[in-house]
Specification:
By secondary structure, this protein is α/β, with parallel strands linked by helices. It has 18 helices and 20 strands. The strands form 3 sheets. A 9-stranded mixed β-sheet has the order 7-8-6-9-10-11-12-13-14. α1 runs parallel beside α6 (93-99). The termini are far apart.
Length: 453
């Protein structure tokens, strides 16, 4: 086949490698021309494919049998609406890789918590002796796993709505839905449209499918609709009903599971190394998923004790002069920042900003109350942040570079405070992605801490 690949970031680059390994003719195209894109294009050419950067050639893409889209390519991209190209079948890299994969898939989606739950689930399976890499939206493209000569026992896949939008045959044996809340309204016309792409997780359900759902999230419980398969749930604040299977926290604070009528008390919530109620929910979801995949309860309990969390997700960077610096750069929406705030037990100087994604920041007020002492608004969203919040609390707008934002936070913080980077925005006004933003924050904080010592 002649495979057209649109977008040469991590997923597109990996898809090109897989396509060439399977003997397909590859034409890769990216509208960007950064050094990273140029390097990816050079790799495609070295593999025997054709690649272009800085734009799309319509005739070349129209001549393809199949188009594989990187998740960063929005459905509104002009090249996709071109009449000559719109008639070509298109799928996501997730779908393309799944077709070449022989390992069973445990897929995790949701608005918040999916990266942590994916990493945690993989860790629990590995602790139980399985070869179970984490892949998909979390870092390693699924195409790279499909290229492995020996397929793993399981692949734990973080699936974003962007990746699920263009699936066809993708069918996880186990699917997890962490929660649902409005997000990506800069890309979707409505919340319903966003939820509809999430619901595609259940498109190819069979009677042997296992679905792990957040029972305290009405939208998450409703999303599968009439999809067949068995359902297991998790609850943090309420006990499981006697008819339910899944995970819960008992009245003594222990994480418990009930699978196939067998109940097990795993560990006390204070033994977890990750902070916050949301991470207790993630731990329950991961535990139920891992045991459903064949992990032992004993190994799951040990894995929960040893899982240390993810970079850029409520990551403690430094405790300098009794000021706690926390990197939560992965919080790119209102819901995720609200979760981070509810995890804090110190007065917070909050760094809020980046590229605005459409939701009002007043939605954060309940989570801010009694916790946030000062907001620093920065980036493209600074004016909107200031407009939404200045009537409710101290807000200072910093229009300079990110170094100025961090320096101002240091000046405002007092012993006993926390400085929390939890932007509730995309990073693309100043940074390539949330990871680059988080690394910049950590480097600046470590420089400040070193100067103070």
């Amino acid at each position: 086949m002649r495979i057209g690949i649109i977008g040469l970031a991590r997923s597109g680059r990996s898809a090109a490698r897989l396509a060439r390994a399977r003997g397909h003719d590859v034409f890769a195209s990216d509208a960007g021309s950064s050094a990273e894109v140029q390097n990816a294009a050079a790799e495609v050419r070295a593999l025997g494919g054709t690649a272009e950067t800085g734009g799309h050639t319509v005739t070349e893409l129209a001549a393809c049998d199949l188009l594989v889209l990187s998740p960063g390519v929005p459905p509104t991209a002009s090249i996709l609406s071109n009449p000559a190209v719109s008639g070509v079948q298109r799928i996501s890299e997730l779908e393309f890789a799944f077709r070449e994969l022989s390992a069973p898939v445990l897929a995790i989606t949701g608005t918040n918590g999916k990266s942590t739950t994916t990493a945690m689930t993989a860790h629990l399976l590995v602790t139980s002796g399985f070869d179970a890499p984490a892949a998909g939206n979390i870092g390693t493209a699924l195409s790279d796993v499909a290229l492995r000569p020996e397929q793993p026992d399981w692949v734990v896949v973080e699936a974003s709505s962007f990746q699920l939008a263009d699936i066809d045959t993708f069918a996880p044996r186990i699917g997890v839905l962490t929660n649902l809340s409005p997000d990506h309204l800069d890309r979707y016309p409505s919340v319903d449209a966003y939820y509809a792409d999430k619901a595609r997780l259940f498109t190819n359900a069979t009677r042997t499918s296992i679905w792990v759902l957040n029972a305290e999230d009405a939208a998450a419980i409703a999303l599968p609709g009439e999809a067949v398969g068995s359902r297991r749930v998790f609850r943090v604040n309420t006990l499981l009903d006697s008819s339910e299977e899944g995970g819960w926290i008992d009245t003594d604070g222990h994480l418990c599971i009930r699978i196939a009528r067998t109940e097990t008390r795993l560990l006390h919530q204070t033994e977890l190394r990750v902070l916050g109620e949301h991470n207790r929910a993630n731990a329950l979801a991961a535990a139920v998923a891992a045991v459903s995949a064949g992990a032992t309860a004993e190994a799951v309990a040990e894995g929960l004790r040893t899982f240390g969390g993810l970079e850029h997700r409520l990551e403690v960077v430094a405790d300098a002069d009794d000021v706690l610096w926390v990197n939560d750069s992965k919080a790119t929406n209102i819901g995720s920042t609200a979760v981070a705030l509810r995890s804090m037990d110190r007065p917070v100087v909050l760094l809020l900003g980046g590229r605005h994604k459409g939701e009002p920041y007043t939605k954060l007020l309940d989570s801010m109350h009694g916790r946030v002492k000062h907001v620093i608004a920065y980036g493209d969203a600074a004016a909107v942040v200031e407009q939404d919040l200045a009537a409710h609390m101290p807000v200072e707008r910093v229009d300079g570079p990110f170094e100025d934002v961090v320096a101002r936070a240091a000046a405002l913080a007092r012993p006993g405070d926390a400085v929390l980077l939890s932007p509730a925005c995309a990073s693309f006004d100043m940074f390539r992605d949330y990871e680059q933003r988080g690394h910049a924050f950590k480097e600046l904080v470590q420089r400040l801490a070193g100067a103070a010592s």
